Amino acid sequence: MNREFLQVSSLRGYEPEIGRWLWCLEDVRHTITTKLTGIDQKLLDRKMHGRHSIGSLLYHIALVEADWLYVEVLGTDWDPEVSSLFPLESRTASNLTHIEGESLEQHLYRLKKVREVFLSYFRSIDLNDWRKPRVLEQYEVTPEWVVYHLIEHESHHRGQIFQLLRELQEQ
Prior knowledge:
Layout: H1 16-36, H2 41-45, H3 54-74, H4 80-83, E1 91-92, E2 95-96, H5 104-122, H6 127-130, E3 134-135, E4 140-141, H7 143-170
């Protein structure tokens, strides 16, 4: 019998503590992309029982990650290349914007591009900057907390995606 060895590692090229948090962020993403490999367009676009489609959730995950990076961590305008990946607003009224007709490859490209930019920034910071609060109008937030929040956010939506995928495949 093959035994798994389960542990948190540190991404190379980062301060070790920061690298461990980023490894966790990457691990959540890996489970999503692995599970979705090969799904067809109908499953990606379909809404079920008033819930969001898988495509809409993937768009939302990428948009939220980019927004936290640019607004809370960097405090700058979005890079035009990243901004161009989001032609639609995240929400319409109180619901996520329904994304339909984008291929899995398009969704994965968007997720990958945002993550590349996100990870690139964290290569250049040390533990002091990692824990240095960014002062915004409504709150103060550290990059450390942003990464924690994004792990939590993506994990939550990963559960929604996996449940929806299972239900759609059972039909």
